[in-house]
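Exercise: predict the fold of this chain.
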Amino acid sequence: MSGDTTSVTDARAAAFLADPANRRYFYPFLGRERSVTDVTLELSERPNAVLYRVRRMCTLGLLRVARCQPRKGRAVKLYTSVSERVFVPYARTPFVDLAAALRRARGRHEEVLLGGLLQVMRDVRDDAEWGLLLYREGDGVYAYDALEGHAPWHSRGAHDPAVLDYAFTVNTLSFDRAKALQQELFGVLAKYFTGEQAPEGTAYAVRVALAPLPEGDV
């Protein structure tokens, strides 16, 4: 990363950015100059909704006027973030502790991911036809979404929807192997997140996580 970083010390500004519904209005201005009209089109929002939040972010010290673009009549104001990077200490947000902050941050994305997965599954079969398939394979016990109990639903066919939903515990990994897994996952994410955007493509929600379990939680 490069560029200056501003640490948000004002509790009101921190609360604004901690709210995903507000934060989406901040993203378009982060590290670049944008007009209210630009962001209105980018977010497919009403001009008044964007203008209200732009004024709010200026008051909170999150945005500044970068320059005014001349045109016939009134010049157009171009806004940008107060710096290229903005750090929001969780301690400055309304959350009680770090756990609450992480639940809020992760929870919104989980809801979006769940909504996309439900849409795909309901396109395949009605709710009443889905179930949980439990089985043993070797020394492992598995639990997967399934239809009619025949096999886990993986959606791996060439023309099946591109969805994946796994949550499991790996018992056990040495630290070196855990680090290797971490780096491999980073590599996969970098391959697809830094590539070219497909103009006619579909947005996908992705959630990848890895953490050592506290003793007793295995």
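Check your answer against the key: DSSP finds six helices and six strands in the chain.
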